Amino acid sequence: MGNDGTWLVVGLGNPGPKYAGNRHNVGAMVVEELASRGSTTLTTHKARARAATLRIGTLPGGAPGPRAVLGVPLSYMNESGGPVKALMTFFSVEPDHLVVVHDELDIPSGDVRLKQGGGEGGHNGLRSISSSLGTKDYIRVRVGIGRPPGRMDAADFVLRDFSPTERKELPFLLGDAADAAEMVVTHGLLAAQQRFHSPV
């Protein structure tokens, strides 16, 4: 996979202040972190999303990284596919240059994992994107939020704000996930997997 062509890095979440601090919105938080690193701000786009264009990261050798679009759908999570597809069409992004950042129950809180393709693991945002694109073959940055405690329903858990303890760790988690997304774009998926999947 070459670095030619525009990348689209999408962070999933639900719109509005009520959801802003939810675990389910961690993908959107990561994209806001990337925007802040690039000294840019996401603005409303006709694709029913907030978006910004920038050069992401730094290539080996120090040159500015590839052209990328950051996006956060303005739809609810289970309708993420429409805005993502519209952004891809507008900016001429191919599925192999789409990186979706999302919360992941099956990964311990604080861990970041990456994969291309595969199932959606019951994640409504991913399911909507796969359905709209007609392919599952895009890259996912999976941000671990862990399993709910006790008998709490997973749907309730993801729509709750991070706990005070988790909030202390959140800047590190957002930083790691943003680093992972940057590295996919600048160095490729394999290099990013080797860095983020290795035991520290």
UniProtKB/TrEMBL annotation:
Binding site for tRNA: 19, 76, 78, 124
Swiss-Prot/TrEMBL site (Discriminates between blocked and unblocked aminoacyl-tRNA) positions: 14
Keywords from the named record: Cytoplasm, Hydrolase, RNA-binding, tRNA-binding
Gene3D superfamilies, per the entry: Peptidyl-tRNA hydrolase (3.40.50.1470)
EC number, as in UniProt: 3.1.1.29
Domain of life: Bacteria
Regions annotated as coiled coil: none
GO terms for MF: hydrolase activity
Catalytic reactions of this protein: an N-acyl-L-alpha-aminoacyl-tRNA + H2O = an N-acyl-L-amino acid + a tRNA + H(+)
Subcellular location: Cytoplasm
InterPro entries (UniProt xref): Pept_tRNA_hydro, Pept_tRNA_hydro_CS, Pept_tRNA_hydro_sf
PROSITE patterns: PEPT_TRNA_HYDROL_1 (PS01195), PEPT_TRNA_HYDROL_2 (PS01196)
Leading EC class: hydrolase
Site (Stabilizes the basic form of H active site to accept a proton): 103
Catalytic residues in the record: 24 (proton acceptor)
One protein family per Pfam: Pept_tRNA_hydro
Family stated for the protein in its record: Belongs to the PTH family.
Function of the protein: Hydrolyzes ribosome-free peptidyl-tRNAs (with 1 or more amino acids incorporated), which drop off the ribosome during protein synthesis, or as a result of ribosome stalling.
Subunit organization: Monomer.
Protein name: Peptidyl-tRNA hydrolase
Taxonomic lineage from the root: Bacteria, Bacillati, Actinomycetota, Actinomycetes, Micrococcales
Name of the gene: pth
